[in-house]
Amino acid sequence: MIPRLPSSNSYHHRLKSLRRNMVVQSPVPVRTKKTKAVGIPTLDLSLDRSIVSKLVVEACEDYGFFKVTNHGVPMEIISRLEDEGFRFFNKPAPDKQQAVPAGSFGYGSKNIGLHGDKGELEYLLLPTNPCSIVQTSNTISQEPKNFSSAANEYIKAVRELASEILDLVAEGLWLQDKYAFSKLITDVESDSILRFNHYPPLSSTPCKDDVEVGFGEHSDPQILTIFRSNDVGGLQIALRDGFWIPVPPDPTQFFVIVGDALRVLTNERFRSARHRAMANSTENSRMSIMYFGAPPLNTTISPLPQLVSSENPSLYKPFTWGDYKKAAYSLRLGDPRLHLFQASFISTNQIHIM
Ligand SMILES: C=C1C[C@]23C[C@@]1(O)CC[C@H]2[C@@]12CCC[C@@](C)(C(=O)O1)[C@H]2[C@@H]3C(=O)O
Ligand SMILES: O=C(O)CCC(=O)C(=O)O
Ligand SMILES: [Fe+2]
Fold first, then answer.
1. To test ligand 2's pocket by mutation, which of 198, 227, 287, 289 has the most ligand atoms within 8 angstroms of CB?
2. How far is CA 200 from CA 25, 255, 294, in A?
3. Residues in domain Fe2OG dioxygenase (predicted)?
4. Residue 75 domain-assigned?
5. pLDDT tens figures, 29-60
6. pLDDT, tens digit, for every residue of 68-88?
7. Catalytic site residues?
8. Which of 50, 111, 194, 236 could form an SS bridge with 244, CB 3.0 to 4.6 Å?
């Protein structure tokens, strides 16, 4: 099917001026080695759908990262969860260590994952399923109902936002199934995660040229990450040329990061942005809240047929989200992992000496 595009001049004029305005200047660039003061693509979700869907696709292709405004999530929902997060991190260490003790979820401090990655932060990692939020809230808050209702309302709102963005992506790619991506994260079995990262002010002064790491460089393995932070900066995004751009915080808006799974589903048309958080050298605490939208564990991830052709053959073998998650979690934070699933990858046990 040949896509039909509106042909009016005013449409093209509007699109051009939107593109010009899409990249906004960072007001307070945090400079480290190899950083650039480039703007962040910003998309106003209240604009005409046909325009926004095109711009979303462009931002996913060029950056794998963008900011959304007019996102429709009430500030009250955001502030309630932020207050609950700070209330938790302000508790004494032994109380925090009791939160969600089982498995890979729960409270962590300075250790990220299980393979020696360190960071200047503490965090709380939770499954987004409403029942497990209710259960775990007993170990997180003295007033568990306040925590669980704040978390569940926030999760519902950001899941809707993620799903809306994924529908725009499907439209911008002219897919026949408009819900091809969103249905993966709205499934009741979805493996999505909620994470609070708390970066207390650094007590020691970092050595010259040695910027301490808050959260090391990595890409997110899931489909899409929706996140925001309070007004303390720290996040940086890698550009294609290897330069890092600081992301000025915007507490009332959301940022979106393309994950590895979406990169595979689009047969590498999209980038999964590598990002990192610098340690917090300000006087105030930084807190980010990340929603990682993921499919059910048994979902097959492989490039969508519409994005595969003889000129663009599939770059990946099919694998399940569970397979990819297992591979990612068996590696260090910054390790490459997608190559393990590439169509051209030959694992050592496939090499037979004749
Ligand atoms: C070192 C690690 C932390 C991580 C699991 C991993 O082994 C590699 C991927 C990491 C990451 C990055 C994005 C968020 C996160 C929750 C995820 O799904 O993959 C973290 C994992 C974690 O913090 O446990
Ligand atoms: O806290 C941040 O700003 C970044 C954290 C992050 O990238 C993550 O939790 O995956
Ligand atoms: Fe991340």
1. 227
2. 27, 22, 29
3. 189-295
4. yes
5. 334 456 666 789 999 999 999 999 999 999 99
6. 999 999 999 999 999 999 999
7. 286
8. 236
323, part of any domain: yes
Please tell me the distance from the alpha carbon of residue 254 to that of residue 350, in angstroms, as a whole number: 44
Distance of CA 303 to the CA centre of its chain: 20
Query: Is the residue at 16 inside a domain?
Result: no
**Domain that residue 90 falls in:** 39-341
Does the complex come out with an ipTM higher than 0.90?
A: yes
**What residues are in contact with ligand 1 under a 6 Å CB criterion?**
104, 112-113, 115, 117, 125, 193, 195, 218, 220-221, 292, 328-329, 331-333
- Write the CATH number for 311: 2.60.120.330
Asked whether residue 23 is assigned to any structural domain, the reply reads no
Q: Which atom of ligand 1 is nearest to the CA of 123?
A: 23
- Ligand 2 centroid – CA 54 distance (Å): 27
Query: Which atom of ligand 2 has the smallest separation from the CA of 225?
Result: 10
